[in-house]
Backbone:
């Protein structure tokens, strides 16, 4: 397997995982993943805390399309780079003709 072929297979594998994460997020929360905020991840945030002096965390904003796209692109690039590294360091087998 050539270096570029290994990189493409790794990037494709990571892209497939990103697509599955997207599908799961849309099915679970009925929203686009970059519009899911922290308040939608827990069922009830109005319950009073049980420990004295505990303050609930401040609500974080949803990440947005740009942050989601950058993170997905970086993960796909890392998947391609890691598989290219594995392909470049693995020993090459001699090419043989087809045996019938």
Residues:
């Amino acid at each position: 397997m050539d270096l570029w072929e290994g990189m493409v297979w790794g990037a494709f594998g990571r892209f497939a995982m990103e697509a599955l994460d997207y599908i799961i997020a849309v099915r679970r929360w009925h929203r686009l993943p970059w519009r899911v905020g922290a308040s939608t991840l827990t069922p009830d945030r109005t319950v009073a805390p049980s420990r004295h002096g505990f303050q609930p965390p401040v609500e974080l904003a949803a990440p947005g399309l740009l942050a989601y796209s950058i993170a997905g692109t970086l993960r796909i690039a890392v998947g391609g780079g890691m598989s290219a590294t594995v392909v470049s360091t693995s020993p090459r087998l001699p090419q043989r003709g087809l045996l019938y």
User: Anything to note?
Assistant: The helical segments are 3-29, 65-89. The mean pLDDT is 79.
